[in-house]
């Protein structure tokens, strides 16, 4: 039976074709996790092949290569695969080729550097880069450049999180948002809990409070203890939907394995999966074989393995729709990683009767990045041509800005449910005016905390504040290394121990300019200096 495409899929495909026919040569097609991007890829392949074009689809992981090749082949596409360990899929005459980026680099690009080239890139007029946010390194940039220069190919990147890819794709098409996907039955709503969180303020020592993921993982491990593991287990046991399959994220491979072993000791046949081995049934198996992983996933679906722990191996581009609960036992620094991670449990699964998902956040990720249920289409369009981490930085700035109306979510002190507003908890009905988080200490005790994770930056105005801001402005403007207004304000805070008001002279009139370099913002766009005479 042929499935009718969802409206957002039809829009994404038709808009992509329209822009290509209008002369656009590179673009990114985005839709939320679970939005059926594989079907949109199929429709674009059908369109291109009907025109007599050849098509190449790039992936950068074996799991994705296998998943995409199997799916397209089942849909009747004649294809070949150019990837190590996929020799049985070789069909050099097929008009569609699934290519592994690492394999193409090893077989095509590197031999050229050694002047020993034997293999050429597959000549194609349509180049699709699947999960382009994971496939955007210099090697892919070089491949794309060759396709554009030699074959005049059209480049289409595909991703649920389309930031940091504008160096490859000139334009962005957003096909659907979370609300639209829930309306058509592609996604389910997530119920969010924050029962007991790791004592993160102990590790927030960076200037911005925002770490890279690797820095954050290492920082979390410095406060990690068996006590934290115990609280993760207790809350999982309490919150898990009866008989449902779950997924857990840990800050490292060692911690993921430790959690799986802890669960196993409590009688739960939990598994751990990493790049090199699998832990299941209380034993470790050294394997990278996809068939072993597929077997584990089937045991997860059947309920035989009710919990799978990992350190981001299953963060993205994996389709396990039967999963109904996610435990975040580690903070997630970037919004892209966060959206991909929570998306693992948001897919609908009518065959298993899934009605909603549950997310247990032990690390404050939802406070930093927002609800997993929110629509992000406007964010992707606004930040597409900006640095990847700008969205997170701007959100944290808003949470800290005393003039901004956005507030941190509320945590019910009774059941730990997170809500945006309201006096009564929608789950347990408990009425509270304050958000109370239970913070896990290193010794295992819980401490009730009412303070926000991102406290507001309350400003002060002293007799010499305006003069100090002016001096700081010219110093930062004339610095050898270009500085932004945010850096200027942070320097003022560091030197004077308080935050200056943003409506003072030499600050931008528009707050959106705070992220820009000082030299890039004209003086006419700054708050003017009163009675200053001639300005230097």
Average residue-wise pLDDT: 90
Poorly predicted sequence stretches spanning 5 or more consecutive residues: none
Helicity range: 25-40%
Secondary structural class: alpha/beta
Cα-atom radius of gyration:
25 Å
How many helices? The count is 16
Number of strands: 20
Task: Give the termini separation.
Answer: 74 Å
Question: How would the blueprint of this fold be written?
Answer:
Blueprint: H1 7-21, E1 26-30, H2 37-50, E2 55-59, H3 62-74, E3 79-82, E4 96-100, H4 101-113, E5 126-130, H5 138-151, E6 154-159, E7 171-174, H6 178-183, E8 190-193, E9 197-198, H7 213-223, H8 226-239, E10 246-249, H9 253-265, E11 271-273, E12 277-280, E13 283-286, H10 290-302, E14 307-310, E15 325-328, H11 335-342, E16 357-361, H12 365-369, H13 377-383, H14 390-400, E17 410-411, E18 418-419, E19 437-440, E20 446-449, H15 465-477, H16 485-496
Parallel strand pairs: 1-6, 1-7, 2-4, 2-5, 3-4, 5-6, 8-16, 9-19, 10-14, 10-15, 11-14, 15-16
Antiparallel strand pairs: 11-12, 12-13, 17-18, 19-20
Helix pairs in contact: 1-2, 8-9, 15-16
